[in-house]
Amino acid sequence: MTISRNIRRKGRSIAGILALMLLAVLPAGCGYTMKSIYPAGIHTIAVPIWKNNTFRRGLEFRLTEAIDKNIESRTPYRLAPINQAQTELTGTIVSVSEGVLSNSFTTNLPQETQITLVVDFTWRNLHSGAVLSRRVNFAASSTEIPQIGQQLPDAEQMAVERMAKAVVNQMQKSW
C-alpha cells in the first residue's frame, strides 16, 4: 500500500512540476505579454481642436470629438486641459477626397464610394518636449455603399471615425 501511495505522490508532483513549466514557457513562446501596449508613465493628454486645411466646414470638430471618444474608451489616458496634461496630441486635416468606385447599372448613380482623409499629427510630451509619435500624410479611407436616403455626411462620418481609431492606434508602443 505504501509503495503505491509513494508512486502516486511522485506522479502527482512530477505532473505538477510539468504543468508549472508549461505555464511558464507557454506565454513566452506564443507572444503573449502582460505589459501594457501604451507607454508607461503617461496619464493625461490634451487634444485641442485640430486644424482644417480643407473646405469641409466642421470636419475638424467631428474628428477631434471622435479622437477624444477613442482615447477615453480605448486607452488608459485621461483627457485634460493643456495646462494640466502631460502630453498633447495636435493635428491638421490636410485633405479629404471622395471617389466613386462603381455606379448603378440602372440609374448610373454612385453605388459605392470611397472617402479618404489625410492628416498630419504630432503627439508630444509637454514636460520634456519629446515627440512620442508623429505622422505626416497619414491616410484612412472608408468605403461605403450608400443606402437609400444616405447622404455624403453619413459616409464622411464613417471616414472620420475610422481616422480617429487609426490615430489612437498610433499611440501604442511600437513592437
Structural class: alpha/beta
Low-confidence stretches: none
Number of strands: 6
CATH architecture descriptor of the largest domain: 3-Layer(aba) Sandwich
* Helix percentage: 25-40%
Distance between the termini: 56 Å
Number of domains: 2
Order of helices and strands: HEEHEEEEH
Average pLDDT = 83
* Radius of gyration computed on alpha carbons: 25 Å
Q: What's the CATH class label of the largest domain?
A: Alpha Beta
How many strands, which pairing sense, and closed or not: the largest β-sheet? 6 strands, mixed
Total helices: the number is 3
Shape: flat
Beta fraction: 25-35%
At CATH level 3, the topology of the largest domain is Rossmann fold
3D architecture notes:
Helices cover 36% and strands 31% of the residues. It is of the alpha/beta class. The chain folds into 2 domains: 1-34; 36-169, Rossmann fold, CATH 3.40.50. Strands 1, 2, 3, 4, 5 and 6 form a 6-stranded mixed β-sheet that branches. The longest helix has 29 residues, at 2-30. The model has no long low-confidence stretch (mean pLDDT 83).
